[in-house]
């Protein structure tokens, strides 16, 4: 089974692209969705212990947690030490399940793939990109997003140009969703030998 890693900076269209791979029949492990699940489960108690007051009714309040770590590099590292191993364990279980089921291709959607040294976990890397002005417009249109938050997030991410340089495949969502969907189909066909969708797993 080929393990494909999908990544991209904030606002590049990675989540939309992940859905396109899922629509093409590829099993997708979504790190963000896994974090949401962990924040209401295994991770909640551990996070409350380190950041008292951020958990309400057994669920992490993401806004309170964001305030606790924003601009605090050491606090952010502590959070990552709690969350990243749990997400990785969930992803490993996902891959093993699909490997047992005979999937030819599976995708790990990892927002911080390069930042967390995730290259060793995948066979190929897809980077989702878009022009900087498109990225900025998309991100600043999000509820609660500010220039300060945007710049803080960007400062923790490997620059887009470096990600593209290290990619095996690039999908430019700035060219429109139809073009991105065609590129996804090309990648899936190349990696599965053009087998029918149902054979992908």
Could you walk me through the main structural features you see in this protein, from its secondary elements to its overall organization?
Helix content is 52%, strand content 14%. The chain is of the alpha/beta class and 201 residues long. The chain folds into 2 domains: 1-27 and 104-195, Rossmann fold, CATH 3.40.50.300; 31-102, Rossmann fold (3-Layer(aba) Sandwich), CATH 3.40.50.300. The strands form 2 sheets. A 5-stranded parallel β-sheet has the order 2-5-1-6-7, sandwiched between helices. Strands 3-4 form a two-stranded antiparallel ribbon. It is globular. Mean pLDDT is 92; it is low at 196-201. ATP binds at residues 11-16. Its EC number is 2.7.1.24. Keywords: ATP-binding, Coenzyme A biosynthesis, Cytoplasm, Kinase, Nucleotide-binding, Transferase. It is found in: Cytoplasm.
Task: Based on the model shown, name its key terms.
single chain, 201 residues, alpha/beta, Rossmann fold, 5-stranded parallel β-sheet, two-stranded antiparallel ribbon, 9 helices, globular
């Amino acid at each position: 089974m080929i393990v494909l890693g999908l990544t991209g900076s904030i606002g590049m269209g990675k989540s939309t692209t992940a859905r396109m791979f899922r629509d093409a029949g590829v099993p997708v492990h979504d790190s963000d969705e896994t974090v949401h699940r962990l924040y209401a489960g295994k991770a909640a108690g551990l996070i409350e212990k380190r950041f008292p007051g951020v958990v309400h009714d057994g669920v992490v309040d993401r806004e309170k947690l964001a305030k606790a770590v924003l601009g605090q590099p050491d606090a952010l590292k502590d959070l990552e030490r709690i969350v990243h191993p749990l997400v990785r364990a969930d992803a490993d279980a996902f891959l093993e399940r699909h490997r047992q089921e005979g999937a030819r291709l599976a995708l790990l959607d990892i927002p911080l793939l390069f930042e967390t040294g995730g290259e060793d976990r995948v066979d190929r890397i897809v980077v989702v990109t878009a022009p900087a002005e498109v990225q900025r417009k998309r991100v600043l249109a999000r509820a609660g997003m500010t220039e300060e938050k945007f710049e803080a997030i960007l400062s923790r991410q490997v620059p887009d140009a470096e990600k593209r340089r290290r990619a095996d495949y690039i999908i430019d969502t700035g060219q429109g969703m139809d073009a991105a969907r065609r590129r996804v189909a090309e990648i899936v066909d190349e990696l599965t030998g053009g087998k029918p969708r149902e054979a992908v797993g």
